[in-house]
From TrEMBL:
One MF annotation (Gene Ontology) recorded for this entry: ATP binding
Gene Ontology, cellular component aspect: cytoplasm
Entry protein name: 30S ribosomal protein S6 modification protein RimK
One Pfam family named in its UniProt record: RimK
TM annotation in the entry: none
Domain ATP-grasp span(s) in chain numbering: 109-289
Highest taxon of source: Archaea
UniProt keywords, alphabetically: ATP-binding, Metal-binding, Nucleotide-binding
Length: 294
């Protein structure tokens, strides 16, 4: 029997993880919910993995989260153990290194830009004066956490003094300042959902009460019939990032066309399902099982 883990650092099983567990078990497979903090590796006569003191044997897993407020050392341990599982033949999606890249917004955009994907002007700085100068240069900017999701903590401003103050606050807690030129666009963005080398679908996320287009921030959703260009670009982005599945956030620049804001290696799908009536869960599990059986 195939044994598959859903890997997420949370004491409470999240709704997304529950959906995966139900889908895996509905196929007659064994499903586990695993927290990376309780996952360990031992090097003795060979390489062994255990979970909460019990030997662990898996065919595959779906990696959702390493943990949020953790130290560098904890992150290294968790990613290292998961990488060891991959090297031992356990099929994980997304791969830990690809997840780490997607988690780092700036490194993600740097890699995409090197590969010819259009992105907005973006910077990562540790000097509030530099943030202020960038605001003077770009006119209107968005300052957001380098690691984060759901639109939380993102601030839009055109006043250099306000950006200076925001930057100082961020730097005071030992975080770098991630700053991006605001893209003039319709009051919406696009979320593309890619699994394997296939675009499952795309939706518009339409701002209702603020400039933010995240569903978690109150945006409404509408299904989008993607153009060939959008489809090809979305698939290429997931491939560049090394992601087996991804949620890709794209804006329509009024002057320059599509630009990529970020790539999510563990996307949620509530808005996507509302708009398309398609749940990605079945297709992600299908893809994983196919990889396990190869």
């Amino acid at each position: 029997m195939i044994e598959i883990a859903v890997i997420h650092e949370s004491p409470k099983v999240t709704e997304a993880s529950k959906e995966f567990l139900v889908e895996i078990r509905s196929r007659g497979f064994t499903a586990y919910y695993i927290r990376p903090s309780k996952l360990n590796s031992f090097l003795d006569n060979g390489i062994e993995f255990n979970y909460a003191g019990k030997k662990l044997s898996l065919d595959g897993g779906i990696v959702r989260n390493f943990g949020f407020l953790i130290t560098t050392e904890q992150l290294m341990k968790r990613v290292g153990v998961l990488e060891g599982m991959v090297e031992s033949g356990i099929c994980l999606i997304n791969k830990p290194r690809a997840m780490m890249l997607a988690r780092d917004k700036f490194s993600s955009l740097m890699k995409l830009k090197r590969n010819g994907i259009p992105i907005p002007p973006t910077a990562l700085v540790e000097d509030p004066f530099e943030a202020m100068r960038l605001t003077e240069r770009w006119g209107e900017v968005v300052v957001k956490p380098i690691v984060g999701s759901l639109g939380l903590g993102a601030i839009r401003a055109s006043d250099p003094d306000i950006v200076f103050r925001v930057a100082k606050a961020i730097l005071s807690i030992n975080q770098p300042v991630y700053i991006q030129k605001y893209v003039k666009k319709p009051n919406r963005d696009i979320r593309s959902f890619v699994i394997g080398r296939r675009l499952l679908g795309s939706i518009y996320r339409i701002a209702q009460t603020s400039w933010k287009t995240n569903v978690a921030q109150g945006a409404s959703v509408q299904v989008l019939n993607p153009s060939r260009d959008l489809e090809e670009m979305s698939i290429k982005i997931a491939e560049i990032m090394g992601l087996d599945y991804a949620g890709i956030d794209i804006v329509e620049d009024e002057e320059e066309g599509y630009k990529v804001l970020e790539v999510n290696g563990a996307p949620l799908w509530k808005g996507f399902v509302t708009a398309t009536k398609i749940s990605p869960v079945k297709y992600i599990v299908d893809y994983l099982v196919q990889k396990i059986k190869k």
